[in-house]
Design brief:
By secondary structure, this protein is of the alpha/beta class. It has 16 helices and 24 strands. It starts with 8 loop residues before the first strand and ends with a strand. The structure holds 1,4-dihydronicotinamide adenine dinucleotide and magnesium ion (MG).
Length: about 500
């Protein structure tokens, strides 16, 4: 995919004060700069204040409380958002329960499918507005919200619309039945996409929904609420309540909720698991990750370098399956690392609304502090840091793309989820060694393998304890493909036929 802005290069002299040798190898890249190509915000519609979406209407919160949601690239306020308390959640859950009992569970599956399909079509129609709002509220580069988040969100609705009246074919002779009310709590890294991952299969299987977006990124979920209204979906089938952790906890603990789907931190996932133990609530958890991206000496090196960059710098590294650990076979380590450093210099960090931008804003001040804290930890632990020479905007939350060379298994930056554009690099000699190292962490969400040899790919996919293993690519998503983790990365699968199961009883 080539953005039109690639064609509008203009020459700018090399402004980076680099060492001569280094400068020479980078000359080709750094002497060129893109003209800004800022996406317009003229076409978007945002209200100054958003209430809770309950029973098909926007209603004022019982709590009477609101908070400001901001643009992390400018630190400016965008809108006021309702902060739902336990009473608000109770009203929302009761609306979902009533809609389940009276309407949704009784509706023929092929009718349900039409609503889901209509939501997908409306997301497509409003794709441009949704991607701009996603970028404004979350900080991710517009290219990503435009080309990845929003189209994939629509595709999830399309895909699950197709399953709604075919559940008996998906699970032959098993007589699948819906559960009731699904309580869904989602994070800030893919706000609209995570809402689609959660809502689409729940509706296709005949359940109703109470969903809470993350506190920092409620806007596209609230726009989705407007789309749901426009689609004519019966009142109460989907309810969207905004707020903080306590709002999420109220959903988790509500007695009328039959199933919890959570994506977020491992700490909160563990807390949820404890709090619903002893109940018959079904649970899926999609938690953190610390994926190994493994480059063998026979890999197509240039493609692998692109894959590494995509793996960790995509969405500022705010990706649970980010390739945040790089393992390079020793014989090609020097070449890969040099190429990676060169590529780092060409990455454009800055205004997420600029179509040229590769790395946008970190989602929140809190997350920025966490990432900077980990960079300090990496330095204190003795790893060698290499950062891009780029400058970052003074206002807003930004981090330079960062490599840590010569890290070891025991370094905290090699073990813990940073959730930022920070890559920990190790080398390896043998296949046994790299499998051992890749698996030796508490997480198991995803991994990447780069090699020319097909049999090695199959060998690795058998031995890596990761829910998804990408081969000669990275961060590829598709609604037909199940996604989920091992170990502390959680359990249950989202996407594909497997993604229907957590919303059904047999
Ligand atoms: P978090 O787990 O606190 O937030 C995720 C969602 O859970 C938000 O909607 C939040 O309001 C809600 N929540 C918080 N406490 C809750 C509770 N007790 N009961 C129910 N819902 C609750 O994640 P946070 O604090 O935003 O990020 C911390 C770290 O977690 C990140 O630095 C990253 O390492 C990891 N994370 C992983 C994600 C993933 O996709 N696996 C997504 C977001 C964060
Ligand atoms: Mg938290």
């Amino acid at each position: 995919m080539i953005d039109a802005s690639y064609l509008r290069l203009s020459v700018i002299s090399n402004k980076h004060g680099m060492a001569k040798k280094e400068k020479k190898s980078l000359e080709f890249f750094t002497d060129w700069k893109y003209e800004p190509a800022i996406e317009s915000t003229d076409h978007i519609q945002l209200k100054k204040q958003y209430d809770l979406f309950i029973n098909g209407k926007f209603v004022k919160p019982n709590s009477g409380k609101y908070y400001d949601t901001i643009n992390p690239a400018t630190e400016e306020k965008i809108a006021r958002i309702a902060d739902a308390n336990a009473k608000d959640v109770d009203i929302a859950v009761k609306a979902a329960k009533k809609a389940y009992d009276k309407t949704w569970s009784k509706m023929p599956a092929k009718e349900r499918a039409k609503y889901i399909f209509r939501i997908a079509r409306l997301i497509q129609e409003k794709a441009r507005e949704l991607s701009v709002i996603e970028t404004m509220n979350g900080g991710k580069a517009i290219r990503e919200s435009r080309d990845i988040d929003v189209p994939l969100a629509a595709n999830h609705f399309f895909y699950y619309a197709g399953w709604a009246d075919k559940l008996e074919y998906a699970f032959p002779n098993r007589n699948p039945k819906s559960l009731g009310v699904a309580g869904q709590v989602i994070p800030w890294n893919f706000p609209l996409l995570m809402a689609a991952w959660k809502i689409a299969p729940a509706l296709a299987t005949g359940n109703t929904v109470v969903l809470k977006p993350a506190e920092t990124t409620p806007l596209t979920c609230l726009k989705l609420a407007e789309i749901i209204q426009e689609s004519g979906l019966p009142d109460g089938v989907v309810n969207i309540v905004t707020g903080f952790g306590s709002t999420g906890a109220a959903i988790v603990n509500h007695p009328l909720v039959n199933k919890i789907a959570f994506t977020g931190s491992t700490a909160v996932g563990k807390w949820i698991q404890k709090s619903i133990s002893g109940t018959d609530k079904k649970l899926t958890l999609e938690l953190g990750g610390k994926a190994a991206n493994i480059i063998f000496e026979d890999a197509p090196i240039n493609q692998a370098v692109e894959g590494i960059v995509n793996g960790i710098f995509f969405n500022q590294g705010h990706v649970c399956c980010a390739g945040s650990r790089l393992f390079v076979q020793e014989s090609v380590a020097e070449e890969v690392i040099q190429k990676l450093k060169d590529r780092l210099e060409t990455l454009i960090v800055g205004d997420p609304m600029d179509k040229n931008t590769d790395i946008g804003a970190i989602n929140s001040k809190m997350q920025l502090n966490k990432i900077n804290e980990y960079i300090k930890i990496g330095l204190n632990d003795g790893a060698d840091m290499y950062q891009s020479q780029c400058s970052i905007p003074k206002k807003g939350y930004f981090v330079k793309p960062t490599l840590f060379l010569n890290t070891s298994q025991s370094h905290r930056i090699s073990q813990e989820e940073i959730f930022g554009p920070v890559l920990a690099i190790q080398t390896f000699r043998t296949i046994e060694e790299v499998i051992e190292k890749a698996n030796n962490i508490p997480y198991g969400l995803s991994a990447g393998v780069w090699t020319d040899k097909g049999s090695r790919i199959f060998n690795m996919t058998q031995k890596l304890r990761a829910g998804v293993v990408w081969a000669n690519t990275y961060n590829k998503f598709d609604p037909t493909s199940p996604f989920g983790g091992y170990k502390e990365s959680g359990f249950g699968r989202e996407g594909g036929l497997h993604g229907l199961m957590p919303y059904l009883k047999f």
